[in-house]
Amino acid sequence: MKVRIGGLNEMSLIDAEGLIAYSIFIQGCHRRCEGCHNPSLQPFEGGEEMDTSEIIDEIWRNRDYYESVVFVGGEPLDQPESLKELLKFVNGTNMEAWLYTGYYSDEIPADIFELADVIVAGPYIEKYKTNGFPASANQVIIDNRGSKNETIGNI
């Protein structure tokens, strides 16, 4: 399955709150949030088209180094089928799946919601900028790692 990406960060320590992460920057975002951290990822025609199997193979080869795989954008939910395929792969490993989305939690499709271990949900709103995590105070962090879904914070 094809996915359009704006880049891969093969060793991130910031995208998953200190976990060693492989971050996938999904290309394209319909939201166009003012003050977006990644405006170059907004156009759908940008980036590079890759096969999800290439990304899966790369992560699998280096799986001993990663604690998490992070899906960020752009807007990962604008490519839902490839996102689901990649999330399902991560679920079959000992790594955590982190999803950053501009969608509110009740807008996230249930099949994607249940595949992500941690979700940072909500659009970036510049007037609520935090200079921390999450990036704006309206965003929530949803922790699906335990036995029940729990909102663990918003600022």
TrEMBL record:
Protein known as: Anaerobic ribonucleoside-triphosphate reductase-activating protein
Domain of life: Bacteria
Gene Ontology MF term list: 4 iron, 4 sulfur cluster binding; [formate-C-acetyltransferase]-activating enzyme activity; metal ion binding; ribonucleoside-diphosphate reductase activity, thioredoxin disulfide as acceptor
Cofactors: [4Fe-4S] cluster
Family listed: Belongs to the organic radical-activating enzymes family.
Species in which this protein is naturally found: Desulfofarcimen acetoxidans (strain ATCC 49208 / DSM 771 / KCTC 5769 / VKM B-1644 / 5575) (Desulfotomaculum acetoxidans)
Keywords associated with the record: 4Fe-4S, Iron, Iron-sulfur, Metal-binding, Oxidoreductase, S-adenosyl-L-methionine
InterPro entries in alphabetical order: Aldolase_TIM (IPR013785), NrdG (IPR012837), Organic_radical-activating (IPR034457), rSAM (IPR007197), rSAM_sf (IPR058240)
Entry annotated with the keyword ATP-binding: no
A Pfam family annotated for this UniProt entry: Fer4_12
EC number: 1.97.1.-
Role: Activation of anaerobic ribonucleoside-triphosphate reductase under anaerobic conditions by generation of an organic free radical, using S-adenosylmethionine and reduced flavodoxin as cosubstrates to produce 5'-deoxy-adenosine.
